[in-house]
Amino acid sequence: MRTLLLALLAFTALARADEVQVAVAANFSAPARQIAQDFEKDTGHQAVLAFGATGKFYAQIRNGAPFEVLLAADDETPAKLEKEGAALAGTRHTYAVGRLVLWSAKAGFVDDKGEVLKRGGFRHLALANPRHAPYGAAAVEALTALKQLDAIQPKFVQAENIAQAHQFVASGNAELGFVALSQVMKDGKLGAGSAWVVPANLHQPIRQDAVMLEKGRGKPAAEAWLKFLRSEKARAVIRGYGYEI
Predict the structure, then answer these.
(1) Which helix (H) or strand (E) holds 95?
(2) CA-CA distance, 235 to 154, in Å (whole number)?
(3) How much is the average pLDDT of 14-41?
(4) Alpha carbon of 170 to those of 8, 53, 68, 125: distances in Å?
(5) What are phi and psi of 20, to 5 degrees?
(6) What's 2-97+205-240's CATH class?
(7) Domain segments of the chain: what residues?
(8) Residue 121 region, left (φ>0) first, then alpha (ψ -120 to 50), else beta?
(9) Quick check: helix, strand or coil at residue 171?
(10) Which terminus of the chain is more solvent-facing, meaning fewer CB atoms within 10 Å of its CB: N or C?
C-alpha cells in the first residue's frame, strides 16, 4: 500500500511538472544554468534557457517568439514590453545589478586601475554591440567618461552580444575587452587572466530586470521560476558571480 502511495505521489509530481521558456541575457548565462539546475531539483519544473542580446530578444518577443519569461540585461526593455502589453504588469523586478570589467586572458596585461587604456600596446578591444547590449553601451559610456573613446574606437572589435565579446578575448582575437564581471568570476573569485573592475560611477547602473511575458500568463512553471529567482538559494548564486542584489 505504501509503495502504491509513493508511486501515486511521484506520478502526481511529474504530472504537475512543466517547462518554462526563458530568454536570458548573455551575461547571465553561467548563473542562469546553475539556478536552472537548482530550480529543477527543488520544484520539478524545467527551465529551457535561450541566451542572447537583450535587444535581439525584444525584437523576437514582439514577433511572437515563444518565450514566457525574460531575464534582461537592462531595466528599460522589460518596462517597454510591459507598456506595450507584451509583458504582465506587476511581475517586473530587478534580479541583479551587473558590473562591467575590462579583461584580458593574459595575466598581468590589464592593471588594477585600467591604465592600459591610456598606455595602449594593444591592437583590438572587444565589446558587445552598444545598440543591442547594455554592457556594450556601458563600455562606451565609461570610455567617454575617461576621455578615451576617440582614441580607442578604431580598435573596437564589435560582438553581437557579451558572450561573443568574451569569446573574442578568450580566444586571443582581441587582447582585451569589456565583458561582464560574471563571465570572469565564480564563487566570489576572479578566474584566469587579468582584469580591472570598472568603477560604477563611470556608467549608468546596469540594472537587470526580469519580467513575465504574455505567453507565460497562467503558467505554473513560469510563476515558479520568477519566485525561485527571488529565493536566497538563487541570490547566493547571483552574488557568487559578482552581481549586486
Answers:
(1) strand 93-98
(2) 39
(3) 90
(4) 50, 19, 32, 12
(5) -125, 130
(6) alpha beta
(7) 2-97+205-240, 99-202
(8) left
(9) coil
(10) N
Q: All 3 cell numbers of residue 65?
A: 517568439
* Fold equal for 2-97+205-240 and 99-202: yes
- What one-letter code names the amino acid at 3? T
Q: Is CATH 3.40.190.10 what the domain over 99-202 is classified as, yes or no?
A: yes
Q: Report the residue count for the chain.
A: 245
pLDDT in tens, 103-129: 999 999 999 999 999 999 999 999 999
Place of cell 514590453: 81
Q: Is the dihedral of CA 163, 167, 170, 176 positive or negative?
A: negative
Alpha helices in 1-100 (DSSP H): 2-16, 29-43, 54-62, 76-83
Which pTM does this prediction carry? 0.82
Cell numbers placing 165 = 565579446
- In 3D space, the residue among 88, 169, 66, 92 whose CA is nearest the CA of residue 127 turns out to be 169
Q: What is the DSSP letter of 199?
A: P
